[in-house]
Amino acid sequence: MSSLYLMIGALCCFALAYRYYAAFIAAKVLMLDDRNIAPSISCNDGQNFVPTNKWVVFGHHFAAIAGAGPLIGPVLAAQYGWGPGFFWILLGSVFAGCVHDMIILFASYRHQGQSLSVIAERDVGKITGGVTAIVILLIIIIALAGLGVAVVNALFNNPWGVFSIAMTIPIAMIVGVYMFKIRPGAILSGSIAGFIMVILAVLMGPYIAESSLASWFTFSKKEVSVLLPVYGFCAAAIPVWLLLAPRDYLSTFMKIGVIAALGVGLLFVNPTIKMPFTTQFMSGGGPIIPGPWWPYVFITIACGAISGFHALIGSGTTPKMIEHETEITMIGYGAMLTEAFVAVMALLSAITLNPSDYFAINTSAAVYAKLKMAVIDLPVLSQLVGLDVAHRPGGAISLAVGMAHIFANVGEGLRHTMKYWFQFIIMFEALFILTTIDAGTRVARYILQDILGYAYKPFGRKDWIPGTVVCSALVSSAWGYLLYTGDISSIWPMFGVTNQTLSALALAIGTTIILRIGTKKIYALVTLIPCLFVTVTTFTAGIMNVQMYLAKGMLLNAWLSIGVIILVVIIIEENFRAWLRLLKTDKPIGMNVDREVVYCPYIPADAPPDARP
Amino acid sequence: MILPATLKMRDCQMVTISPEAQDHAMKNGGELYLEYIVLQSGCCIPYQPGPVVRFGRPHNPARFLAAAMEGITVFVPRELPNVPLQITVNSFMGFKRLIVEGWRHA
To answer: Tens digits of per-residue pLDDT, B26-54?
Structure first.
């Protein structure tokens, strides 16, 4: 079958979902209304709450939520065949992931850009708020350290990658100063200039790597492990308009541009799908993912369909920059749909490889020998990329080979450029991840400030400089420590399930919010159904993982996983009691947003004009 | 206790231990084990964590090979890929800890 059918089918599905389902949620369920003043306006502090053009916010949000997950997860899930991964990306993103991102972004917007734990504390209860704060801080620190490992592995001894990525920092600052200070609102000219500079940085990379300047951009693993948290600190502490927002925005050009180019490449090359609909590994025993397709295909694809990490961005940086409430549809639902399309393209790049080549890349030599398969195109592919790509598990290499293979086959004359494309895609993966790290560190700072704000109120103010510096230093040191010492290895195995469990938690909170504001109780099914599915799936995976940890004597992971499961049970139980209570009310009681907040007043939609800033 | 399989140093070439790590291990009971797991799901990065070293005896010794090394017993998971690894000492802020070096993260 032609891979074009899947690509076009996915595009049609996403277009329909955005046109009808997202519009239904916006108009009927959430009743988005631009008369609700944005926190970026009512709380504008010029540092964290900054009214920002919707395309820049979209770029930031997409860059922050789209880490390596949509690239790597679908490639690994291709082990089960193309069917399970493809249909989960479609259904999961449309009915779960996009809804999840949209409802949390909406909730945070209405709560003056506060974090998920504050929303939970106000709209569900104090226990849920406190427990959510612990869970999300744990998850985000683990996530940042784990993502850091991937970037370190991609950038050590890689002057091309370091140069190109490092150059995006000064370029972003120039663009930020231009778009926000010199010519506020000049998005088009700033974007064009920034885009050209980023492309130049990428094109110059190979020349820098072969020049005498290469030593300036060549770092060991330890050095990159120190530089990354330092960068994370800067991205978290300095005003959002200066570095984070423009850098993520510019990175999104490259991210979406490469994926769009891959789509065009597919149109030209029209490769056939070589992976079967399902493989013999559906019930477990696979060489890449040992577990059965359910629940592990859902855990593995993660951000390609739904991810709890998105709730942290949606209640972190993004709601503090949106200018109008109706933009939540495009940014919350639309960015996740875009990420799902990235996941579809990553899946296509894997399933158009010969299955024997795919497994040869993604398994060790010993495991591959047991499969009794014979490689087909792998020797030629290795020769074309200038590297023996056999037995390099993890998903990154097979993705790079698959994408480079498509690009290089657009025309006969391009075939010899496959080596260049391969290196470009490896750097592209690092870029994808780094934008998640910088935004994630800033979000972790906000979460920590919210927690410390309970003990000492000024910490709750995001514009309080000592709080900003201390919390930025604490969170970047925490994940930097796990990265530098390698201790992340001890706890990373629990991350996949824990991250998906967070999405169940966020959907439960979303259900409570819809029951509070919805004109019809039945609208709560929009979040309740995906919440139930994700909860059952992640709890099953969690229990299977705990059994495995105990069998292997990995007590730290076992106890941490049990702890997270118990905490989430507590949260869902409190939500469940809130649902029962809310189902008995005749009219919507509204969200609990009229309570005094530390630094900016809530302005209701029907407030007189002179009450607005 | 009867070890499931006791290997001499020469039989377990894939794991070695540095002299500093030996001293540190001796001060902490003389028994070490490596924790290793093949991730059940690939979320969300291309990263298969390497083995982690812990003091003491594993919860389920039958899953391990026990290697006697210079007076230290190191329990190595049977499913650990055959790559050369070294247990060394790492010092961070004055705190000494054992780490495993040589793992190439996937």
So the answer is: 999 999 999 887 776 656 676 778 888 99
- Could you give the dihedral angle defined by the CA atoms of residues A61, A483, A138 and A444, in that order, rounded to the nearest 10 degrees? -40
- Nearest C-alpha of chain B: how many angstroms from A17? 25
One CATH from 1.20.1740.10, 2.30.29.30, 3.60.21.10, 1.10.10.10 for A3-156+219-611: 1.20.1740.10
Both tokens assigned to A63: 């860059």
Distance of alpha carbon A327 from alpha carbon A332, whole angstroms: 8
How do the domains of chain A map onto residue ranges?
Answer: 3-156+219-611
Q: Is B42 inside a domain boundary?
A: no
CB-based contact A430:A151 (threshold 8 Å): yes
**Which of the 8 DSSP states describes residue A186?**
-
**Helices A495-517, A116-123: inter-axial angle, 10-degree rounding:** 40
Which member of A309, A486, A541 has the closest CB to residue B99? A486
> What is the chain A residue with the closest CA to B47?
A394
Partner residue opposite B49 with nearest CB, options A289, A396, A492: A492
Residue B11 domain-assigned? yes
Among chain A residues, the shortest Cα distance to B52 is held by A490
Helices A54-65, A244-269: crossing angle, 10 deg rounding:
70
Judge whether A67 is closer than 8 Å to chain B, CB to CB: yes
Interchain contact, A68 vs B45, CB within 8 Å: yes
Are B44 and A550 inside 8 Å of each other by CB?
A: no
Higher pLDDT, A241 or B48: A241
- Would you state the pLDDT for residue B45? 72
Chain B environment of A553 (Cβ under 8 Å): 33, 35, 58-60, 63
Is there a contact between A69 and B99 if contact means CB atoms under 8 Å apart? Answer: no
Which range (A58-67, A243-252, B78-87) has the least confidence?
B78-87
On whether the CB atoms of residues A75 and A346 are closer than 8 A, the answer is: yes
CATH classification at residue B86: 2.60.300.12
Q: Which residues of A touch B83 (CB under 8 A)?
A: none
Q: What CA–CA distance (Å, rounded) separates A335 from A59? A: 8
Q: Quick check: is B19 in a domain?
A: yes
Report the number of distinct structural domains present in chain B: 1
At A140, the pLDDT band (50, 70, 90 cuts) reads: very high
pLDDT tens digit string along A313-356? 999 999 999 999 999 999 999 999 999 999 999 999 999 999 99
Q: By the 8 A CB rule, do B90 and B67 touch?
A: no
Q: Of the candidates B36, B42, B97, which has its C-beta nearest A395's C-beta?
A: B42
**Amino acid B8: pLDDT:** 44
Contacts of A481 in chain B (CB under 8 A): 92
Using a CB–CB cutoff of 8 Å, tell me whether B50 touches chain A.
Answer: yes
Residue among B46, B47, B77 minimizing CB distance to A492: B47
State yes or no: ipTM above 0.85. no
pTM of the model: 0.89
The answer to whether B38 contacts A67, with C-beta atoms less than 8 Å apart, is: no
Assigned domain for B41 exists: no
* Mean pLDDT of all residues in A272-301: 92
